[in-house]
Amino acid sequence: MGEVGFRAVNLLLRLGERVAVVDRTPRDAWVRELEAAGVQVVRGDARDLEVLQAAGIERAKALLALTDQDMVNVQCALEADQRYTALPTIVRVFDQDLAVQLEQSLNLRRAASMPALVAPSFATAVIGGHTLGALALDRERYVLERMPVDSGVVATYHTLGGLVGETAPVAVAYQSAAGDFSPTLDPHRELRVGDGLLVLRRVLTN
Fold it and tell me: Is the pTM of this model over 0.70?
């Protein structure tokens, strides 16, 4: 599972999704925490179809292969693709060229190169935001960011409608300080310090 997988699982849980994890040697502390949150943890090799079936792949919305080894992730995706061709698959890789080739040759929803995902987060940090992810749409690259609501934002805009009207990126959701997501952008909602606006920003390339 690793750090990336653990964080992805926790984010999916916060979004209300049911999650099952496959890991050959998961950390005991993580297993206890995830199982307490209702996550099914299966010890085994995700390249083994029987292990994937034990984790409930036949009922899954999607498969995420997020180990720190490119070939393991690719093999896992290939194994799933042979049996479950309609299952959306997301693969973590380190080689950007390999990520592009995988998306073109396999039935993948996303092949993500970690350096390509991390780079926008550094740029976003400079302007005070936090990058949640990156994606490509019609050959354009976008990053999903969380723009924090601080006391200055509250004093200037007061309501969500005022903030969204002044936001250049596309606003997609609002997150309370408690972590609750609201895809409905109520213009009359009062802004509170600690909240955040989730926006989709196009990455300009040469």
Answer: no
